[in-house]
Amino acid sequence: MNDFDFFVGSWTVTNRRLANPLTGSDDWAVFPGTTTCRSLFDGGGNLDEIVFPTLGFRGCTLRLFDVEREAWSLYWASNRTGLLQPPVVGAFDGDRGDFYGDDTHDGAPIKVRYTWTGTTTASPRWQQAFSADGGRAWETNWIMEFARA
Q1: What is the CA radius of gyration of the chain?
Q2: Which end of the chain, N or C, is less surrounded by CB atoms within 10 Å?
């Protein structure tokens, strides 16, 4: 529990997102964001809302710690769909957290991985990667670098 306490507060975000994941493209879009995170359940959960002003949409992540399994479940939703997506699940080892789940991309089933690093620093980093081959190879397609607002 309390692994995500580092994230509570307000942040500015530099986003880099791969324009066409899983196509071999190296065309990255860079855009700003802002996010605010608040703690739930004395550190056993949290909720953040992120705003992408130049893209015209918002998203939120709900993170919940399963005490029995000692694992986090991270749920994403955005105002584009209004749907809570299936979770990615995982844990931290030191200041690195890896979270895995099943998803789809362009209608095809994929694996997705979220990775948090630098959580003990002033500039934590989040990355998303997709795998189209069951997790043998991963392609990073979204990177967020955070700085305190």
Answers
A1: 15
A2: C
3-state secondary structure of 42: helix
CATH number of the domain residue 83 falls in: 2.40.128.20
Q: What is the pLDDT of residue 1?
A: 83
CA–CA dist 92, 7 (Å, integer): 14
Query: Is 127 domain-assigned?
Result: yes
**Full domain range(s) for residue 120:** 5-18+30-148
54-95 per-position pLDDT tens digit: 999 999 999 999 999 999 999 999 999 999 999 999 999 999
Q: What is the mean pLDDT of residues 125-131?
A: 98
Binning the chain into helix, strand and coil, the percentages to the nearest 5 are 5, 60, 35
> How many domains would you assign to the chain?
1
- Tell me if 67 is assigned to some domain: yes
